[in-house]
């Protein structure tokens, strides 16, 4: 069995000093897959010291240098797309159709950041002052397990674009993907210390990043509970934070929507990344008078989902990442039944023919009250709650009756009306009549879905701070 025991600092692989060993389990076979020796606080401090030194050296990097670094990172990650895809499928169980685009997006994020650096006005005149958009310092990057490459590369690309150095703490559950990605990023031959990668637990390595005075900003993607702890911890040293957190996104079918065309999108939104997606559309809002029609169509969609081996390119839903996640989803399915929702399809246990692996049955609950746990809490599995509404006002009220505000989906024949409704939904992104890809549009949440935005120019601006120099043209 593979043992992973290194971290990447100052452009080198070093053995971690931490002692704790974590065994990673293959989510399809339930066999032990790898052992990870986790880095500890001391390892984190070494990485922070290196990144701080590198920042002092590299803070004055030019636009051309940053563009060159981003170009090189883009090239090595793009070249590694097949091996990155395979590793994500193997370690995490992400179906090929999700894992491959994740690897491609990871590479694309460097190309996108390079374009931004080319055009971004780092210096401008404002109100008689010369304003320079300056890097913040060392950025701490903390990421979850559900699309590891995408988060690590997206955040690193922005840190480099801004002129920062970084210490990255990927999820301990993505240790194999992180080890591979580190080897790939190392091939770019960037200045030592520009980025450093330390895999350890959140409570140790992650907490040290949040606490340490030499970290100027934390860019975090993960759960709302941990996001709140980070926001509290960051206040002590007044760190900047970008928090991309959870969601309970509504898919709103307006009463004039073509349900036959909309339902495949609604199902795909609900089960993307096997349901382990912060942006999953997990509440389907349906006009009461068309509930039976919606039921037949959404159940047909869920019943026809291909669940199984993520290596099979036809697979739409793979296993949950760990036994713990499997049990959590099972717990929510039981909660839905206990709370009185109607089980329309799926239910507890594994799908037929899958006796092994952390597979769950794609499940639709009908007659869901928006106050039930399955309608309020993030399940992070292929479980959809169908909620009936009376009229447009009621639909918008239900869509917004959540602690979250990450994403929403609206379907309707009258485009003007669909846009009007979209404008009333409290969410960082609203998709109308489809699942769209706009990698440079801002991404992030309202309310407890987070703070700040990622991607494109809004993303870059979370990594820089304006400095105004007054009298820059004044001679004495
Ligand atoms: P998590 O919050 O448990 O962990 C995320 C990361 O934070 C991990 O690297 C973890 O080790 C670290 N961490 C844990 N405790 C910490 C602490 N006290 N201090 C610092 N770091 C700490 O989330 P997860 O289970 O890995 O991922 C699933 C969650 O992520 C879901 O809630 C999902 O909605 C969210 N998510 C959000 C987005 C988004 O962009 N909004 C995207 C993907 C996932």
Oligomer: single chain
In whole angstroms, the N-to-C terminal distance is 71 Å
User: Strand portion, in percent?
Assistant: 15-25%
Task: Count all strands and give the number.
Answer: 21
Q: Please, what is the average pLDDT? A: 98
Rounded to an integer in angstroms, the radius of gyration calculated over CA atoms is: 23 Å
Small molecules bound in the structure, each named once? nicotinamide-adenine-dinucleotide
Secondary structure class reads: alpha/beta
Largest β sheet strand count, sense and barrel closure: 7 strands, mixed
How many helical elements? 15
Q: Regions with pLDDT < 50 over 5+ consecutive residues?
A: none
Roughly what percent helix?
A: 25-40%
Which descriptor suits the 3D outline? globular
Overview of the molecule:
- With 476 residues, the protein is of the alpha/beta class.
- 40% of the residues lie in helices and 22% in strands.
- The strands form 5 sheets. A 7-stranded mixed β-sheet has the order 15-16-17-14-13-18-19, sandwiched between helices.
- The protein is globular, with a radius of gyration of 23 Å.
- The model has no long low-confidence stretch (mean pLDDT 98).
- The protein binds nicotinamide-adenine-dinucleotide.
- Nicotinamide-adenine-dinucleotide (NAD) binds next to helix 7 and helix 8.
- The site of nicotinamide-adenine-dinucleotide has 29 residues, from helix 7 and helix 8.
């Amino acid at each position: 069995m593979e043992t992973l025991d290194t971290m990447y600092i100052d452009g080198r692989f070093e053995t971690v000093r931490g002692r704790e060993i974590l065994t990673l389990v293959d989510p399809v076979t339930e066999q032990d897959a790898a052992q990870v020796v986790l880095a500890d606080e001391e390892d984190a401090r070494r990485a922070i010291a290196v990144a701080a030194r590198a920042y002092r050296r590299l803070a004055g990097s030019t636009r051309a240098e940053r563009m060159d670094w981003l170009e090189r990172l883009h090239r090595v990650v793009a070249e590694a797309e097949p091996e990155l895809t395979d590793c994500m499928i193997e370690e995490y169980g992400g179906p090929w159709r999700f894992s491959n685009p994740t690897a491609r997006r990871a590479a694309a994020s460097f190309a996108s950041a390079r374009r931004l650096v080319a055009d971004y006005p780092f210096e401008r005149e404002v109100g008689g002052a010369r304003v320079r958009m300056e890097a913040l310092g060392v950025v701490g990057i903390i990421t979850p397990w559900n699309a590891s490459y995408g988060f690590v590369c997206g955040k690193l690309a922005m840190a480099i674009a801004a002129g920062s150095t970084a210490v990255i703490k990927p999820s301990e559950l993505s240790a194999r993907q992180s080890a591979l990605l580190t080897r790939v990023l190392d091939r770019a031959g960037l200045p030592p210390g520009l980025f450093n990668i330390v895999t350890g637990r959140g409570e140790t390595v992650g907490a040290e990043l949040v606490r340490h005075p030499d970290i100027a900003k934390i860019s975090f993607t993960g759960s709302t509970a941990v996001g709140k702890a980070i926001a509290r911890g960051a206040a002590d040293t007044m760190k900047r934070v970008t928090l991309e957190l959870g969601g309970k996104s509504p898919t709103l079918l307006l009463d004039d929507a073509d349900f036959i065309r909309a339902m495949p999108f609604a199902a795909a939104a609900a089960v993307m990344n096997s349901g382990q997606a912060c942006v999953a559309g997990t509440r389907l809002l349906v006009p009461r008078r068309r509930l039976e029609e919606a039921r037949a169509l959404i159940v047909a969609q869920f019943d026809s989902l291909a669940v199984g081996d993520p290596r099979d390119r036809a697979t739409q839903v793979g296993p949950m990442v760990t036994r713990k996640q499997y049990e959590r989803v099972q717990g929510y399915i039981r909660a839905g039944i206990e709370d009185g929702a109607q089980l329309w399809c799926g239910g507890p246990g594994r799908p037929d023919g899958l006796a092994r692996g952390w597979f769950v049955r794609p499940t639709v609950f009908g007659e869901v009250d928006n106050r039930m746990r399955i309608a309020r809490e993030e399940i992070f599995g292929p479980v959809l709650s169908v909620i009936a509404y009376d009229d447009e006002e009621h639909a918008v009220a239900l869509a917004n009756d959540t602690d979250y505000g990450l994403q929403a989906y609206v379907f309707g024949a009258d485009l003007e009306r669909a846009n009007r409704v979209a404008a009333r939904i409290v969410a960082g992104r609203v998709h109308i009549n489809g699942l769209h890809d706009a990698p440079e549009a801002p991404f992030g949440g309202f309310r407890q879905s987070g703070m700040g935005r990622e991607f494109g120019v809004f993303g870059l601006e979370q990594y820089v701070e304006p400095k105004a120099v007054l009298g820059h043209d004044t001679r004495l």
